Amino acid sequence: MQTLSILKPDSVAKSNIGAIISRFESNGLSIAAMKMLHMDEAQAGEFYAIHRERSFFNDLIHFMTSGPVVVMVLEGDNAVEKNRALMGATDPKKAEVGTIRADFADNIDANAVHGSDSEENAKIEINFFFSKNEIVNAA
Ligand code: CMP
């Protein structure tokens, strides 16, 4: 199974890319695709279109376009749920000890990582950033 992970601008700015990727690799998630990019407002708005009506939408887009991100396809058994467990709660104040957000995130906007919330959304989000020939067989 595959899921999409984004290391957000705070993770890149704080040089936490390697430490966070280590969490994935040491917990049975392999990298099947990876790239670094700096989203513009249109791209971030399209990616987060589902949140367009939410009060936090403008802050979210502002933050996600504030610097480069690393986007990855993670592959492994139960990848969607495993990644969500490794990330912890969206709000780092509520994230369990030892999770990525508890250890690396500052607040609910600068919350270190994004991960797909379902297998269906994982497919949509992977297609958003990657073409088929950019994804290797990591299993
Ligand atoms: P992410 O998993 O990237 O999906 C949407 C993002 O919106 C979320 O992580 C948070 O960084 C951000 N956000 C800000 N405020 C909220 C909120 N109240 N509820 C959910 N997400 C929020």
Count of DSSP E strands?
Answer: 4
Gyration radius (Cα, Å) is: 14 Å
Distance between the termini: 9 Å
Strand order of the largest sheet: 2-3-1-4
How helical, in percent, are the residues?
A: 25-40%
Which spans have pLDDT < 50 for at least 5 consecutive residues? none
Beta-strand percent range: 15-25%
Q: So what's the oligomer here?
A: single chain
Count of discrete alpha- or pi-helical segments spanning 4 or more residues: 7
Bound molecules: adenosine-3',5'-cyclic-monophosphate
Largest sheet, strands/sense/barrel = 4 strands, antiparallel
Overall pLDDT metric: 97
The geometry reads as globular
| Secondary-structure element series | EHHEHHEHHEH
Layout of strands and helices, then pairs:
Layout: E1 2-7, H1 9-13, H2 17-25, E2 30-37, H3 41-47, H4 57-64, E3 69-75, H5 79-87, H6 100-104, E4 113-115, H7 119-129
Antiparallel strand pairs: 1-3, 1-4, 2-3
The protein binds adenosine-3',5'-cyclic-monophosphate.
Task: Briefly summarize what is shown.
The chain contains seven helices and four strands. By secondary structure, the chain is α+β, with helices and mostly antiparallel strands. The mean pLDDT is 97.
